[in-house]
Amino acid sequence: MATEQTQDLIIVPCGIHGEMNMTYRWGAGDFLSKAFEELRDNGKIYANECPQCGRYHLPPRKVCGRCHVEMDGFDKWVQVGPRGTVLVYTVTLAPFLDPETGKPRHVPYCVATIQLDGAPCALEHFLKETNPENLKVGMRVEAVLKPEAQRKGDLGDIIHFKTVQE
Amino acid sequence: MSQETKPKAPLSIEGAIILPYRYAAGGVMSRFLIALRDSKKTLGIRCSRCNMVYVPPRETCLHCFGRMDEWVELEGSGTVESYTVVRYSLPVHPMAAPFAFALIKLDGADTSLTHLLGEIDLEKIKVGMKVEPVYSESRKASILDISYFRPAN
Amino acid sequence: MGRRVAIVGIGQTLHKKRHIDRNHTELINEAARKALQDAEITIEDVDAVLNGNMDLFEGHNLMDAMTVEGSGAYMKPGLKMNTGGTTGGTMVASGWYHVASGKYDVVLIIGSEKLEESGGNTTSAIITCADPLTLRPYHTGAVGALAIVAASYMNQYRCGEEPGAIVRVKAAGNALKNPYSHLKLTLTVDDVLDSAILIWPLRLLHMCPQSSGACAIVLASEEKAKKMTKKPVWITDFVTSHMEAWRATFAPDPIPSMQSQTDSAIKLFKRNGITNPMKQVDMFEMYDPAAWAEIAWLEDFLICEKGEAWKLAEKGVTALDGAFPVNPSGGVQSTNPIGATAMIRVAEAALQIRGDAGGHQVTKNVNSALASSFGGANWTNLFLLKKNLD
Ligand SMILES: [Zn+2]
Ligand SMILES: [Zn+2]
Question: Which domains does chain C show, CATH number per domain?
Fold first, then answer.
């Protein structure tokens, strides 16, 4: 990438190819590892409950952020979904650069907060539907999973939530 | 207390943060870089209160917080004040290993410039040796418009 | 409670899209010099220098190390802080700790950002603050979070799109009177409603800009402040409150409510005997990164009843000449150099108390003001500033 010059001022690109490129490896920890293993291997979504305040966490956390107590282990986890109710949604039309790739994200996409059936907790994920005219708070949706062989053990194993009629 | 929660294997996510940036050099540093690119000249800036010459130049004197605007032109040659030899290669390095970084006090300057040494036997670098700049053929208004410093005759 | 601390000097650069004629060090230097000049002191009188700036918003790290000659921190103690949008508020709080503790008498705090350096990719940098496994793929930065605030508010109170536009037009009008503000737009409600949607239902003109600029404040102990200036502004009290970063995962929470705002208001008001903030405090410089945030958060800060805030701008209550002016500076909606943004809220509130705001000085007499910050790590600073010591 070339150095720019505006009149007598120099503006330089940073990094080797005009961009910063830093790789990382992020450890998920026991609880999230177990939760995403269940999603990948068994297609199941779990939440866990704080033994003190009774709030459910999705995906399961090891510590409740409010009570600061250790949460119950896998034998007490509750399976939730795959259906749920949309609590709030937004539709992104501006093509932001995805910081993981340095390339623009494909638009439009709809991100919703979805209350999954089975416990009072919610998940942030994509909706298949992206037209605001077909979206509404309270609509029922269902998780669409990748074929088992393609699952990697992250939230992307759920492709999106599709609209369902009940 | 929590029951055991054992995943078959701990999960770790590999990713990257890739973002483009541009840095505005500012008026003072731009003048230095343009002189280097267009006329192979090394400019410094003097604080009249502290009687100090800074290379590369900056707008504010580190010592007295005064604004500086007295430009001086230097010969470009200098003295090695300290050095180190890099023995491994990284994509961000300006040269393939082994190569030497040096702190070079340019004649007429009161600060040291961090730069590279070239055309030199890495085993024979000495503190106090005289060096002169070798300019790049394709200069881009960068500190690497000086490719490196070599022993002066 | 510590020693009493006053704001004795304030400096800002012009905030704009690009400062290509100055590097980051030089930009900081301008704000620092102006604040020292305003306090009628020199850098020798300063005991410590603190910097605030966001990581990944410029192409350089550890900006405090790189900008020493600009900040004046040479051979002085200091810290660099980054707490997301609250950075400027965290710095005022930290400056207060430095002075109130008795360790230092005069502290210079400088918040800065050159968002031009990331070429408009602020949102991408913000996304990197989210958990890479469970949130990053869906994260749309501040724009997404504020779109949720807007969607939730409109859904809850069925107020339509117009209130957000009225608030934006008010902010634009105030910014036109503020010589330092970035966006100087003459806007109508229709302009806002016709602007492009970024993230439905949030439109381009609802959202704050990406600015380059710096703000600096000199804080001093009571003893020093009384000697230095006839117009000290006292940091009477402040509260910092954190939320969980994973807010969206808890369905029982009312989603639009920012608990850290409410929590900080409850604590601050209780400690200071405030039962009716609109009557007992004269104005509010709120951290308002989008038009709908000003509306929803006035309720979260317990300034008015739930479901009432969307009517305030239309009635003129929050205008420059209103009963309770909100963001007479034009707010974050008009100016957003992120590392400085929250400090500008405190600086602007202090200028109003001093009567030095100039063209955007509010009509009423200002003896006390609230200033807030909110940001990335889901936390709030809420400040109460006063003209007189209690
Ligand atoms: Zn709990
Ligand atoms: Zn000097």
Answer: 5-121+210-228 (3.40.47.10)
